[in-house]
Amino acid sequence: MKKRFRLLSAALVIVIAAAIFTAPGASAISFKCDVKTTSDSILMVNLDTGVEVFSKDADTRRYPAALTKIMTYIVAVENIKDLDTRIEIKEKVIKDVEDSGLYPSGLDWHTGEKLTVTDVLYALMLPRGNDAAMMLADYVGGGDIPTFVDMMNKKAEEIGCENTRFENPTGVDNDNQYTTARDMVKICRYALGTPLFSKIVSTPSYTMEGDDYPLVTTNSMIDAARGGEYYYTYATGVQNGETDKAGMCLAATALCDGYAYLCVCLHATYDLENYDEYCMLDAAELFRWAFLNLRFVSPASKDTPVCEQPVKNAWDTESILLVPQSDLNIVLPSDYKESDITIVPDNTDPINAPVSKGDVITTATVNYQGEKIATINLIANDDVSASPILFFTHGVDKVLTSPWFLLSVGIVVVLFVIFVSVSSSYNKKKKHKKKSE
To answer: Once rounded to an integer, what is the mean pLDDT over residues 67-94?
Structure first.
C-alpha cells in the first residue's frame, strides 16, 4: 500500500512539473481588427492602461535602425544632470562619422564650438543626426563609445527588454544589434517619462543657437508643412528610421479625445525608388481603427465586491467580501459584452482572522473572452475580529501538526524505544549475572 502511494505521489509531482514548464505565456488581447498592414512586426498599446490592442509578430528580432537613438537619448539625459551644459563639437568625432559614410545633421558646421546638450538632443531626434548620437556617446562615455554602448545595454536590461542588444548609438546595421516590437514599446514608454523627450519628438522643426536654418523632423506624421499624405492630425511624435536590413521602422504616438496610443512598426518595405513610408501608413490606419472602435470601460470598481474569501478563527463569521484595491479602467471594443469579462481570484484558500479593512488578501486575473488583460489586488471590505478560543485552538493544532513538533515527538519516541531496549537488555544481563552467582 505504501509503495503504491509513493508511486502515485511521484507521478503527481511529474504531472505538476510538466504543467508548470509547458504553461503558455501571456499575449496581446485578440481584438477584432481588419486593418491590413505591411510592416512585418507591430505592437500597439494604449498608453494609459498598458493594454496591448494589436500585435503582429511582436517578439521576432529585427534591426532597429534609427529607433536606436531613442535609447541613446535615454542614456544621455540620465547621465547629464543639466541639459544646458555645453559640450564641444569635436572635429575627431565629426571626422569619424563622415569616414563611416554616415549622414551628419549639421553639427559639422559647429566644429570646435560648444553647443548645449538640448541643441544636440534636437539634432539627435529631429533629423536623426548620427553626428549628434556619436557626440553624446563620446561625451557621456568619457571619449569611449563602447563604454556608452555598454550603458545602453544595461539600461535596456533594466527597463525589462529581453530581446534587445546594441552595438552602436546610431542604429547602423550590425548583426549583433537587434530589438523587437515588444522591447521597443518598453523603451519608448520609458523614454516618454524622461526630460524633454515628449516635447522634442513632437516638434516639426527647431533652430539651434546661432543658426539661420532649422533642423527638420524626418517624421512626416507630425509635419503638417512637409508631411504630405503621411501627415496624421492626431500624431504626437517619436521617431522613424530605415536601413537596407531594417527596412522602414517607426515608433509613433497619437492622441485623440483623451485616448493615447503608442504604435511600433518594424521591417516595413524599404522602397528606395518610391520611398513610400509604409510603416507610417500602417500606424495611421491602426490609430484610426483604435480611436473609432475602442473605448475605456470599468469592469471592476473598488466599491463592487468580486468574491468571498473563507475566514478561519473569526468571531461570528465564516467569510469576508473582497473588493478591488482601486478602480480598474481598461480599453475594450465598443461593442463588448459584460459576459466577455471574468475576474478570477488567484488564491481561494481560507485566511486567518484577524483581518483589517483594506488588507491586501490576494490578486485576481481579469480576462477578456478568456484572455488575460490585467491583474488587480483584492482587499478586505471589512474588519474581521479573531475568536480567542478558536485562535487558541488553531494555535495548538498548528503546533501539534507542525513538522518540528512531529519531528520532536519522533525523536522522543525513538529515544524512548532505545531507552526501553537498552534497559531491557541491561536487566536481562543483570538477571543472568545473578543466576550465575
So the answer is: 96
